[in-house]
Amino acid sequence: MKTAIVMGTRPEIIKLSPIVNSLNKKNSIVVFTGQHFDNQMSLNFIRDLGMRKPDYTMKLTKLQNSTSDRATQISEMIGSLAKIFSSTEPDRVIVQGDTNTVLAAGITALKCNIPICHVEAGLRSYDWRMPEEHNRIAIDHISNFLFAPTKLNKTTLENEQVHGKIFVTGNTSIDAVEQNVKKINLVTMNLPFSDFVLVTIHRGENVDNRSSLISIINSLIGSKMDFVFPIHPRTLNRLKQFGLYNKIKNSKNILLLPPVGYFEILYLMKKCQFIISDSGGIQEEATSPHIRKKVLVIRKSSDRIEAVKEGYSELVGTDTGDIIKAIKKNHDLIRLPHTNPYGSGNAAKKIINILRKNTNF
Ligand code: UDP
Fold first, then answer.
1. What pLDDT, in 10s, does the model give residues 324-361?
2. Fewer C-beta neighbours within 10 Å, C or N terminus of the chain?
């Protein structure tokens, strides 16, 4: 019995690493779609996380910045995945999260009659502007096994009457932190600040929109705090396109970095006072027992509502004044709960045990 694991972006690699690393090479295949084609955002993570080299790596056509980009990319992935699935004949396909890779692998598996296992099922932002929301809803409704990180995610799936079986497992992002957190002792980073706030921003609704991006950047420049800001390639492109790059680069309280590796981001999360981010994964990782940091979420809605409810995350929005106010408040006082909304690091084990019990895994 063979399992195919399909992944294409940085967060999928990180969150699937605890599963891939516990599978036997003989009865599994790993497919990398190359949705994140930059090594700094993909293959370096596969190496650092001790994962085996993918059995198949695709080379997708470079995006043309046109309205049909996403559809073209998904169709290209489907074409290649169909060939891989027909030659390898997997008995199940595992995907994680909400990317175009997940949607493409899901549709291909569905049409090839291969059962789909969705890791991180049931997340919703109820924000239809987000392409991730389209992908999540679609994959959840065609999956046979749905691994929901929390009870709330399970309830969402039950209310939507998905047809697959639902299991609550915690999030594998926490497993990855717990398995790798010791490696931060090996990290050396020369930072000009001893006290700083970590910033990551990359969501389309924030960075593709000129006025949102200006508002966010002005809040950092206008704040009295110091910031360390590893820049996602998409954000870098937009900063340059909107003429904001030099402004932020020349500001003395912001250290811009290229995207950093997994151990470096864990190091920065551990060392910082708090985090400003629109990342889903970082909101989860910040709750893990070895990190425990507050995240000011630069979004109007969140698909990680458990972190907001329990007090790890605060939804701040994108208005300059609101962000500056939230930074000031959290500089003065941070209180965190002693709960683990996304589990304590055994989600991958639970997922594998469930597959063993319910299938010929
Ligand atoms: N991350 C990283 N280096 C960085 C920024 C983020 O390794 O410079 C990690 C982060 O810890 C998390 C994942 O990348 O595990 C999140 O990816 P991203 O924010 O791009 O996507 P999202 O989670 O929002 O889907």
1. 999 998 887 788 999 999 999 999 999 999 999 988 77
2. N
240 exposure class (CB count in 10 Å sphere: 0-12, 13-18, 19+):
exposed
The whole-angstrom distance between residue 352's C-alpha and the CA centroid of its chain comes to 21
Going by alpha carbons, the residue nearest to atom 13 of ligand 1 is 11
Distance of CA 26 from the midpoint of ligand 1 (Å): 30
Ligand 1 site residues (CB inside 6 A) read 10-11, 14, 200, 202, 230, 259-260, 262, 265, 279-282, 285
Q: Cα(342) to centroid of ligand 1, in Å? A: 16
**Helix (H), strand (E) at residue 198:** strand 197-200
Q: Rounded CA gap, 138 and 131, in Å?
A: 11
pLDDT per residue as tens digits for the range 142-192: 999 999 999 999 999 999 999 999 999 999 999 999 999 999 999 999 999
Continuous segment of H or E residues that includes residue 119:
strand 116-119
Q: Can you tell me the distance from the alpha carbon of 51 to that of 59, in angstroms, rounded to the nearest whole number? A: 20
Query: Average pLDDT, whole number, for the chain?
Result: 95
- If you ran DSSP here, which 8-state letter would residue 58 be given? -
Atom number, ligand 1, closest to the C-alpha of residue 231:
8
Residue 158 to residues 14, 53, 167, Cα–Cα distance (Å): 28, 37, 11
Average pLDDT score over residue span 288-307: 95
| Gap from CA of 50 to ligand 1 centroid (Å) | 18
Tell me the DSSP string of 218-273. Answer: HHHHTSSS-EEEEPPHHHHHHHHHTT-HHHHHT-TTEEEEPPP-HHHHHHHHHHSS
pLDDT tens digits along 54-100:
999 999 988 877 888 889 999 999 999 999 999 999 999 999 999 99
| Catalytic machinery residues | 202
Residue closest via CA to ligand 1's atom 6 equals: 265
d(CA 310, CA 159): 23
Residue 234 Cα to ligand 1 midpoint, Å, equals: 13
